Amino acid sequence: MTSSSTPGLTRFNTLADGEATPALHEVCASAAWGETVLAGRPYATEEALLSASDAAMAELTAEDLAEAMAGHPPIGRPIPGDPTSSREQRGMAGASEELKTEMLELNLAYQERFGHVFLICATGATGEQMRDAVKSRTGNSPEQEQEIVRTELGKINRIRLTRLVRETLAEEAPVQDSRDLGE
């Protein structure tokens, strides 16, 4: 990851709040997170932006986390027509029907236990790794799981913010291959 300012970061820093707010909402559905990140502008480097994201994530309440999670579809069921959701869940795309069915059942059991969707930074993970994670995490206490979810959201936000500042206004700079971002 680059630590200096990029054209995309400069553009993000200078966007009107009314343009930056929806862009941040696409990264994370928590309004509190978005407001905190927005208030920290301008960022001198991508790393400063990512650090601000991490700090904002650490401060989210349980309600804020629930709002953030509401922006994520269940693993194995990306939002139709949403390239971000499909890209992030690519590991399930080629999964067998048996694995997809198992994930559906595991997702439902997890949601029944914790009251929210199973959330994992799925970027780069195989269907089997996601299945193993949901199986393992279903045994956690609600408190343990809340902190794991916070960590996973933080990872997702970092990937999405990096993509945002590197791809802001694609016509200004070439779009990077998603493999450059670890996806």
Structure description:
There is one protein chain. This protein is mainly α. The protein is 62% helix and 0% strand. The chain is built from ten helices and no strands. Helix 2 (17-27) crosses helix 3 (31-39), helix 3 crosses helix 4 (46-58) and helix 8 (97-114) packs parallel to helix 9. The chain is globular.
By secondary-structure content and strand pairing, the structural class works out as mainly alpha
Number of strands: 0
Indicate the low-confidence ranges by residue numbers.
169-183
Kindly state the percentage of residues in helix: 55-70%
Instruction: Indicate the multimeric state.
Output: single chain
The backbone outline, from C-alpha atoms, is globular
Order of helices and strands: HHHHHHHHHH
Task: Give me the number of helical elements.
Answer: 10
Q: Summarize the biggest pleated sheet.
A: none
- Alpha-carbon Rg, integer: 17 Å
Per DSSP, what share of the residues sits in E-state strands of 2 or more residues?
under 5%
Span from first to last CA?
13 Å
